[in-house]
Amino acid sequence: xxxxxxxxxxxxxxxxxxxxxxxxxxxxxxxxxxxxxxxxxxxxxxxxxxxxxxxxxxxxxxxxxxxxxxxxxxxxxxxxxxxxxxxxxxxxxxxxxxxxxxxxxxxxxxxxxxxxxxxxxxxxxxxxxxxxxxxxxxxxxxxxxxxxxxxxxxxxxxxxxxxxxxxxxxxxxxxxxxxxxxxxxxxxxxxxxxxxxxxxxxxxxxxxxxxxxxxxxxxxxxxxxxxxxxxxxxx
Length: 235
Fold this sequence. Notes:
Elements: H1 2-27, H2 32-58, H3 65-84, E1 92-94, H4 123-130, E2 137-139, H5 143-155, E3 160-166, E4 171-177, E5 184-194, E6 198-207, H6 216-230
Antiparallel strand pairs: 1-6, 2-6, 3-4, 4-5, 5-6
Helix pairs in contact: 1-2, 1-3, 2-3
């Protein structure tokens, strides 16, 4: 009976951690990676407790509220892990791995002090295997107009905050913030002349935390580049 109560209490703790972690990060009380750490610890604990709960069910002992909580939390946690297992454990993606756009203004932000914002050379081969579709986009307008289109489109992104537009360098930089944990990713869009009055647009998106990003940065680049390719300058 006593062990059952302990397991039930641990189940409640596991469920609490998976709620408190995201909540604290959302409120800004802790860093996003710390909030995610609470969430991960709660999820791992829930998985371990869920195994015990299943054993109890097989033995016909039934479920207490804590065990039921563990099963529910474990199912959600494992589902998230499985959904992210198809993505490589890198957190920096670009449309030009040979000459990736530089995050120059991002490097001046206080929160990036001491961070290495260069594109890791080893990521290029990994990215090519999973995301070979991330390619530069040709826009049949002048670099100035292409940069303006990119800036206007970036302004419409709900989770982005523009940090700099540099016409001389042909770049737009921004920071994207995730809705729940408030993880921040640094973004740069680069425009260069190509052909007779046309422009070549490249993009890079890099997470500040973690080793993997669950495919967020690659998906962001795909969505933005498709929108830019189909834009007619009337946004």
